[in-house]
Amino acid sequence: MSALPEYRTRILLERENVPLVKGILIKIGEDHPSTLPRMPVYLKAQIPGATSRKKHGLVRKVDTREELEENLNILLSKGDWGQAEAVLITEGLDLKAEYYAGCMLDFGSREELPGGVLLFSKEGGSGVEGRSGTLLKMRFSLLHPPGSDDIEKELQELEGLKEHKAVSEFLKSMISTFIGYKLIVLEINPLGVLCDGTVVAVDCRAEFENSAVRKADMDVFFPPGIRSSKDLTELEQVVELINRDDPSGTGFFRQNRETPPEGALRVATNLCGGGGKMLWEMTTGSRTDIFTLNESDTSGGLSAFKSYRILMVILAQKNAQVLLLTGSGMAFQNQHHLAAAVWKALRESPTPLPSLLRFGGTDEDKARELFERVGGTLPVPVKTYPAVIFPNAMVDDIMDMARETAKTCKRYTPPEGEPVITVEIPPGKIYFYPERWQKDEIPPSVEACPTGFLKWDESALSMDPEARCIGCLMCETAALLDGNSEILIDLEIPEVVD
Ligand code: SF4
């Protein structure tokens, strides 16, 4: 998944007639503007995927022409944050209220078709820790999106909101942009209300799947000369390789280019789905005591094999103190499979981290049960949360978790022995050790295979050529928990992570 900076998201919104705060864009090497909106103005560095820009000095208010020249030069130069694509100059507004609006893709489930989810809160702007209590969620069909009347009806639920009509018209156009450009996430924060009741997008960002971009829109999504692989960190390049080998689902990972504030807790994140990402941003966006080391999104039905490989990258980040994993609470990915991937990564990574894990979606209870069984065997403390717990409750625990030093229990070492059967499922190999399973009955590992790919015929393991391995890790998990480690899986990880 890739991210669009604000100025390119604005192009999409403008095309769908979403009202925006007025702005002038200055790209690197371009002349500074001779005419400007009335001072003061805001300068905003345009960096794909950047969040909490205000907190990090990438949004600056300037009052004079001199300040403008000086700050434009700084923001257009390479800094801790990397290289901005451009700087957007927007006028200062006298806002009556600031709201939050987001759209995200919900990949659906066996029972429910994929759709979109509209999120709206009366608590907008940065520093919005209290937003969870006022968040309105509205699921919508991508084929038959809601009209402004339907949205208005939902908005009536929100106490104290006065601009129902204007906001619902705005949200209707926002949904139309989200669907029209097949976005994964579209966020407007803040959505500003002017004194005359007009609503405008003050800041916005979007995330998208590269393969979903239409030819006609290539110039907005992939403008020539922007972002080459040279701009990627070593670990980001590893994730690109993982995605190239295994394009199923979303595997997005981007490291924070900024320097953590002194004393801030450095958190590695695995956020599942646009919802997980938004929830985390909403919870920690204003905090200077928590520094998010990376953005991430693993979602869209990716296999546990791929989740494990991306988790190994996330855990390999230098100076990370704690891992936080949270889904949106309605993940398409089976949470038991995801938990198997997390367990494997925590026991096999050379740099495991104390972990806070919030599972939400299919088999979330089984996911938590898994950690109840294995938590005590890991070299780091692990705490799990159900989907009903909002991430700000996890943040309350994060400091204590980080303070807990690594446990002294023995690191996991796989049992010795020679596998007799090796099944290649790129990028993995499944090894079977028959001497560890001498009984006639079917081993738990084979029984756990949900697709029937592994079979047990006359006391021997075989593979059903008609069935498929979906990379769920259930066979290895059952072998370790209920069998005798008769099946182990080796998943290829680029050297830099190992
Ligand atoms: S062999 Fe079966 S249980 Fe094992 S990873 Fe493949 S599908 Fe899952």
Name the CATH superfamily classification of the largest domain: Succinyl-CoA synthetase domains
Number of domains: 4
What shape does the CA trace take?
A: elongated
Q: What oligomerization state is this entry in?
A: single chain
Low-pLDDT ranges: none
DSSP strand count: 23
Task: Kindly report how far apart the N and C termini lie.
Answer: 24 Å
CATH topology assignment of the largest domain: Rossmann fold
User: Which CATH class of the largest domain?
Assistant: Alpha Beta
Which distinct ligands sit in these coordinates?
iron/sulfur cluster
Helix content: 25-40%
Which secondary-structure class do the elements indicate?
alpha+beta
Give a short account of the largest sheet. 7 strands, antiparallel
CATH architecture assignment name of the largest domain = 3-Layer(aba) Sandwich
Strand percent estimate: 25-35%
Folded structure, characterized:
There is one protein chain. The protein is of the alpha+beta class and 498 residues long. 28% of the residues lie in helices and 26% in strands. The chain is built from 13 helices and 23 strands. Helix 3 (148-155) crosses helix 4 (164-180). The longest helix has 17 residues, at 164-180. It is elongated and about 80 Å long. 47% of the residues are buried.
